[in-house]
Every structure is written in C-alpha cells, then in structure tokens.
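sorry to bug you again but im stuck and you know this stuff better than me. what follows is a protein written twice so to speak, once as letters and once as structure tokens for the fold. mainly i need to know what kind of three dimensional shape the backbone takes. anything you notice is useful, everything is just below:
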Amino acid sequence: MAHMSSLLKWCFNLFWRARRAWRRARHIGPLPPPLLRARAGQEPLPFLEGANLPWLDYGGDFGANAWNPGGGLSRPGRAGELRGQLRELKARGIGVVRWFLFCDGRAGIRFTPAGTPLGPDERLYADMDAALTALAAEKMKVIFVLLDFLWFDKPGHVNGVQTGGRTRVVTGAYKQQRFRRRVLRPLLERYGRSDMILAWDIVNEAEWATRGWGGGIIGPSVPFLKMRRFVRRVARLVHRHTAHLATVGLGNAAGLPLVRGCGLDLYQVHWYERWQEAAPLERPIHELEADRPVLLGEYPTRGSSRPPQAIVEAARNAGFCGALAWSWNALDEFSGMKQENLTIS
C-alpha cells in the first residue's frame, strides 16, 4: 500500500508538471500568481496580514465536554477575555485570525459509543456566536480550521473525554456521511452568510495523517485518495451552503499534490526552517503550478534564523497572497508574538 501511495504521488506530480509546461507554452514568461478574492467578481483582497490565534484553550473553545460542561467561549467571563485578546491583536496590525474549531474531537460534537457523529453538542452554536460577536466588534476576519491532524491520533481517554481516535470519521463511508450531514452541513448553513468568516480550513496539515506523506506516525493513516475525496466533499459543502472560501492548511508546499484539483478556492502552505530544502520559501508561486492563490498559513515568530519581518517580505516577493504568524496563544518553540512584542506591518 505504501508503494501504491508513492505511485499515486508520482502520477499527480507528473500530471501537474505536464500541465505547467503546457500553460507556459501558451504564455510568454512566468504566469502571474492568481489574486485572492473573498467573492467571485469582487476586487482582489490586499495582502493578508494575520496570525494564528489559534485557540484560547486547545479543543475547548467550541463545545462542551466532561471537563467543561458549560461549554467554551460562551461561559461567563470568557467573552471579556476573548475581546481583550482580539483588541491586542488588532493593535498589532492583525486583521485576520486562523482559529481551530474541532481540533482532535474532544468537544463540540456528539458521538455514539461506536464513534458515529450524531450532531453538534448543546454548546457549540452558543460558543460560535460568542466568537463571531467578538470578531465583529473588532472588525476582524477569521479562517476556521475544522479538523487538526491530531483528530487522526491514537485515541486517548482522560477523565471521561476522548481525544483523537477519529480516523474512521474520514475513512468510513457511513461515519463520514453522518459527519457531513449531521455536523458540517448544519454548521455551514447556520454561519454561511457571516461577514466575519473568510474561509473554512478543512484539515490542518493533512499530510501528517495521509499514507505516504507522513501519515501513520501519530495514528492510523488515511489513504491518499480517501483524504482527497474527503477534502473534495467538504469543499463542495462549503460552496453549497456558504459564501466563504475553502482551503486546507498544508504542512509545507511539497504537499500541494495532495489537494490540487479538490475544488479549493485558495491553497495554503506552512513554512518552518526545517522544510526550507524541500519547499523553499523564496520559490516563486508560479513555479508551484498554483491555479489558485497561495496563502502562507503559518510561519514561525520564534526559533528561526530569519526574523518574522524577513519571512513576510520573502512571502510577498514570492507571490503569496498573505502570511499568518504562528502564533498568539500556542505554547511551543515557534510561537513568539507575545514574547517578542511583535507588530505586523
């Protein structure tokens, strides 16, 4: 099966190289990068300067569980905390935030004992309403990340809460159908006309859960074609029930063959120094054969030999449509916005 994944990857790369050669034969010089528009026919958006929030509490902002039966952002006191953080981000030049929604599946969704999605839990919409109210007050846009790659992790059980272990919701035909119809469609229908939402990011760093692309390290891997099929189906839901964009946050630009041709509105790649050789930040967007705008969805604000301003400038020069700093609230070695008092400009 690993050999089959490698063969599929090779075939997709060959197809897109041939397509790039054909397009260049019809066009003198490098192709300009596609322009990002929030809606078809609207004026192109300026270069997006934003940040990954990416949560107040990982997996605990939206929905309830045994740890927080009262839910996330709609709990007393949480709205004020959120408004304060958004105001500070706005003061630092941030106009767009990327925010994780269901994360590893620990809250927001009701499941049967067998792991079949039943629908949103009783606090999800109240928490979503609280988030969008706070964003509207600061006139900020959001990219909601539906699933983190830890959704596909080995299952863990801590004080009555399951984390990870949800791979079958993507790979199983029945469970995926229930997820799309009972969870995602009602969510998208309810918030599909919100002016605060710019895009829905279907899976954060999908490669790390896909066979032949890094999947299998954290838990059961998803076959290449099944991951593409899931992305395509959710993108179709986004287009059918919202006025927003659909994207996938890739671990780096080398993962683009995984999502090309899946009906996304913009591609999104992440860059950290360890990926520089495989996916150079300076590589012009036209060399990626990008038929959609490309967003730099994550870049480090700490732990890199390049200062954040140099990374953003390199992204501009390469033709990216924006850059979102990592991160405001995550406590990892690449998050330095608060420590460095970083202002985006």
Notes: The chain has one domain: 49-326. Residues 49-326 form a domain with the TIM Barrel fold (CATH 3.20.20.80).
